[in-house]
Amino acid sequence: MTNSDVLTAGVVHSQVQDGIATVRFGHPKSNSLPRALLEELAATIARLGTDPAARVIVLQSEGSGPFCAGASFDELKAVRDAEAGQRFFAGFAQVILAMIRAPKLILTRVQGKAAGGGVGLIAASDYALAVSGADLKLSELALGLGPFVVGPVIERKVGLAAFAGLAVDADWRDAAWGERHGLYSEVLDTPVALDARVRDLSRKLAAASPDAMRRLKAVFWEGTGHWDALLRERAAISGALVLSEFTRRAIGG
Questions:
Q1: Closest listed residue to residue 243, CA positions, set 163, 168, 143, 158
Q2: 199 belongs to a structural domain
Q3: C-alpha R_g of the chain
């Protein structure tokens, strides 16, 4: 992949060692998520879900800055019709569905701030661990959009009232808020402590019963069988809204 390709699409790397599958995504613009990266991330997680050598999956992003800035503004600016808009937002649906349906527990390491779709990735995790500076926000309403695609998975984790507050007041919540409302299972003081805890927990899970973990995960996500259709409908809403005059002004498109 050339430097130009990386700037456009970002990268996804994965490896499996000692039962632990590590998936790392990155993009030069604050680990934002263009469509190609979303598709590759979904395909990678789905593949590892069927790999018998992978007993637990660890999801993380590149660098020491933001965990994920959400949707790629460059791609949002390039959307010119509702169908293209739906295809873009459907990428988030693909990743969420791949995460909740992979028959392996997914731990997510959050080393920095997360916005929009990045919060959706955290909510779709089975266990998210964050550093104390990993603030969260849903910024979509300020852009003339709404957290429609990521909404169901976030609401499932935090409840309707907390989700509504997060969606309506598009400002940062600190990591303590995330832990208090269930988005983060643990908050660690430093990146060193975060890495040590992720390493310790992933090793323990890699030694646990795969069948027990698979059945436990099925319990976590019971009742989401209709989400293919639901998230497709939500992607269509976002795909239409991104063409509005308000949103074009907000994103500079």
A1: 143
A2: no
A3: 17
Two tokens at 118? 């990045």
Task: Convert the pLDDT of each residue in 51-91 to its tens digit.
Answer: 999 999 999 999 999 999 999 988 898 899 999 999 999 99
Q: Residue 174: which CATH number?
A: 3.90.226.10
Q: Does residue 1 carry a pLDDT above 70?
A: no
49-54, Cβ contacts within 8 angstroms, sequence gap of 24 or more: 49/98, 49/101, 49/102, 49/103, 49/104, 51/16, 51/21, 53/16, 53/19, 53/21, 54/16, 54/19, 54/20, 54/21, 54/104
**Structural domain span for residue 135:** 3-191+206-251
Instruction: Using alpha carbons only, give the angle 155, 158, 159 rounded to the nearest 5 degrees.
Output: 60
pLDDT tens digits for 216-238?
A: 999 999 999 999 999 999 999 99
Q: DSSP letter for 174, please.
A: -
- Which burial class, exposed, middle or buried, applies to 71 when counting CB atoms under 10 A from its CB (0-12, 13-18, 19+)? buried
Q: Which two tokens stand for residue 46?
A: 């789905």
| Residue 250 token pair | 């907000």
Residue 125 CA: distances (Å) to CA of 22, 47, 102, 115, 214? 14, 17, 11, 15, 14
User: What is the number of domains present in the chain?
Assistant: 1
Q: Is the whole-model pTM more than 0.90?
A: yes
C-alpha distances (whole Å) from 105 to each of 124, 182, 195, 214 are 11, 16, 18, 7
- What are φ and ψ of residue 173, in 5° steps? -110, 145
CA–CA distance, 180 with 19 (Å, rounded to integer) = 31
Consecutive H or E run containing 59: strand 56-61
